[in-house]
Amino acid sequence: MTVLWLANTSTLIKITIFFGVWMGLWMPIAVLSAFALNWRPPQPLNQTQKLTLLASLYGIAPIVLWKISQVEGQSFADYGLAWRFEFFRSIILGFGLATISLIVLFGFQFSMGWLHLGPQHREGQEQQSSPVNSDLPAKNRWVKLWQTAILVLPILLIAFWISSTEELIFRGFLQKQLQQEYSVWVATLIASTIFALSHLLWELRHTFPQLPGLGLMGMVLTLACVSNGGSLGVAIGLHAGWIWGMSSLDTLGGVKATEKVPEWVTGLGGQPLAGVSAIVMLLMVAGVLDLSLR
């Protein structure tokens, strides 16, 4: 009886049940993990604490979503997650587009003198920490490149795991559920707003200025799904590419604003998504995706 009622209930109730069950199952694990990791909100999370909590949160989500899809007589393929050759090709295309967009974003800002690489690369300082420094002996350069690869390759795996889970939830389940009662773009606005607000779970102070950028990012990822015939492939590739690129930069020393332009241009608090430059980059990606629809 409960299964029949859930299958026939309204979209908003299904969405509420999904997020309610998901958070309800996760909260006891999160509390125990917080004690084990010695994290006390509202203290900021370090990388280990965040990854541990993220692993438990995103480990539960697909299980809850799978049970809901069973009740509705659907599968993850109906949400746009289909493991076919075309799907993997779409992921590669999306990842390539994300990489190019980040090269354009940061390349332009570096060329204009708005950004510089980490504190170790300031003018007048030696750049011996660069993994490709031509002054280093060939053997040392290979060692540096190997050390860099060891750092960025695990980030790549994590990026694909996070992007696949988030795209399944927000552009798969949530978007398609909302489209049953709303137009595509109304559903996109609601899903993208929830997507942006969900990031406040981890940190409020640094995430709040990024909300407009995160919301626009959600809309661009929805456009990626539309341009890909409803498949999540391009969206997963785009999302993973952006996570990987940004996280790799942070891991390798990060970028710093030179203060030649106001902080809101490059990103408030050093967060690119809180800056106009990243907003323009997202709009350019949206333009490329829109052209692919014509």
Q: Would you give an account of this structure?
A:
The protein has eleven helices and two strands, in the order ααααβαααααβαα. The chain is mainly alpha-helical and 294 residues long. It has a two-stranded antiparallel ribbon with strand order 1-2. The longest helix is centred in the middle third of the chain and has 41 residues, at 138-178. Residues 120-132 have low confidence and may be disordered.
Kindly report the spatial arrangement of strands forming the biggest sheet.
1-2
Binned strand content: under 5%
Helix content: 55-70%
N-to-C CA distance: 46 Å
Quick rundown:
The chain has 294 residues and is mainly alpha-helical. It has eleven helices and two strands; from the N terminus they run H-H-H-H-E-H-H-H-H-H-E-H-H.
Could you outline the blueprint of secondary structure elements for this entry?
Elements: H1 2-8, H2 11-36, H3 47-71, H4 85-111, E1 115-117, H5 138-178, H6 184-198, H7 204-207, H8 211-227, H9 233-251, E2 255-257, H10 263-266, H11 276-292
Antiparallel strand pairs: 1-2
Helix pairs in contact: 2-3, 3-5, 4-9, 4-11, 5-6, 5-8, 5-9, 6-8, 8-9, 8-11
Please supply descriptive tags for the structure shown above.
2 domains, two-stranded antiparallel sheet, single chain, 2% strand, globular, mainly alpha, 294 residues
